[in-house]
């Protein structure tokens, strides 16, 4: 085989020069001609070369004999001796996977057991092409080269297939010859480096915030150490994310006045991104070796597919890699908006890549060894250093996965991360404390004025501030000068934990955190919607160490979170910035928490954890409408309620076991008695614990509750991501559960967000009910809440009905359901069942 290439700026000059040319087997045409003018080219090619396979695509730039052209058309004529061409096209009228199957199925079916040596695939589609497009050809081991068409005016883009100029289509050409020698390779001018970050605010191609910080500030932090950011520097560092197995690389195109960045591609909110360093010299060493190999093979035709991002738009000089390959080969092909390349892992849509496809129908008689290329001198070791850093990070990531905090059971560990900050969460810390003994110091940092910020600015601003706090904690601990081996975790709405695994004495650790507190409290933070709103944070910090200053044991590593939380509470009540467990170790009650944990564990093992049931009554009919399942534990023959230990147990793995046990008891009763209704308390922690969530889903799959089970969501203030929990609650409600918001009015509540959960019942907390018979302010508050709830179609339920006067007032204002000791104390299961009998 052999190929000839031509370059023309007009159809007339092409026709006048080419009309006597022998008809080729394959014509490829690449160039800048708009779609309407291309129709004339297509009809002329059909008239002149009717038996040839004719393909092509629009591109802003194309390569003619190694030269870069930004006008006109490059036409490649290829002649084969023993190779059959098969081809097909398909529209993008379905999902990507179905389009790929429609394109390749006729070709593969035609071949039967035979296989094409390689394929060229060209596409014109407005959006990124999902890797699902290649699922069907990957199943049949198809080797694919090619790319995505694109002009700066996307409406003028096209692909050519035979005599049709198509938009939003894909085409494929297969080369069938068992003796055809195919050589393919890829050069990538980028390297991923640095930690993963979360896109927390974006609009189209405008990237506003990464990890809740202005995008430019993040670029400055990592690239210029806080100095002014220049666009040429930023443009060398794309942000890479993976969407539906597709790599998307967004390059900074413009610095905005408000701290945002205009990117070459949109990045969706919630996407995890990583810096991607782009520089052609990164692959020049491997390109030299691969070019020598290509020269040795002596291919008869070489086609190039090059990414448009790999060339300076103001220059028509070839990049180093292109010039290197072109020094020994005649190169022709298009610049693409994404290149297709098949490796041992299948075909993928790549970016910032140069790929080539080399053909030869005849075997090489003697390898060409005349030309030996010299490797470039390595005067700048930047890329080996970057490779070292990147591969070290990959090793850490692999080790982290190998040690996995939890057994995967077929699911990922995304739920171990906090959505707003990207930090590991409480569950990740608890599992690490349980399964490993590497943490020697643990600090719990609480924002004391968090509620005030919530009330004045709203949840979103408070979350942004916590993200900024996490950023500055990590930054300050990194600059401290000591390799602390720290990891940050988000414990709750206003708490961050920092684990230290380096063997440093407590005195040094205390100095580090005293300095950290001073730096943070002296710093002015700002809300992301307005830099004018400068805020300061006040902190209380508890630090726990496993050893004291003399190396004596203070606590076991698995109890560090309990001890750090105790120290943090002591700091806050004592109005201290920092408290250490070594200083409060001998205070009374310091061992009670561990005794509680051991007692609850023993009760679980001996089946002494069970439910009591407190009935609930219709305020108007006085009839019982169901009961709330309340946790009880028998310890040393005494029945004990949860108030003494529940908050403590929530920090351990005992808590999910208790929730699942309570659910099992409710399930047994609902099956045994068809006329009872039960309410079960669930914390937001239950929905974030995968095993508990799976148990709940399994329960609803087995049972048709039809309004007989009410899920009472407690700790409404700790719900941070309503968009996350809403679909989960909707799934359970669709299965027949009712939803109640418990403890409403106990503290600051975001009414708008809670109402967005669309609850069936709003439970009024006892703190606003107990004095309602004589407290006029509480009467007005409850009356307003009751009217608002009813106007939204939500029932109300009052807890702590402890007297006839309270009962009568609640009946008068129309609260729907009543619950309290005045009506019935919590009953054992047997006692409660008797109330129905």
TrEMBL record:
Residues 438-582 form the GGDEF domain. It holds the Pfam family GGDEF. InterPro entries: Cyclic-di-GMP_PDE-like, EAL_dom, EAL_sf, FIST_C, FIST_domain_N, GGDEF_dom, Nucleotide_cyclase, Rev_trsase/Diguanyl_cyclase. It comes from the Bacteria. Residues 593-837 form the EAL domain. Signal peptide: none annotated. SMART domains: EAL, FIST, FIST_C, GGDEF. This is EAL domain-containing protein. The lineage of its organism: Bacteria, Pseudomonadati, Pseudomonadota, Gammaproteobacteria, Oceanospirillales.
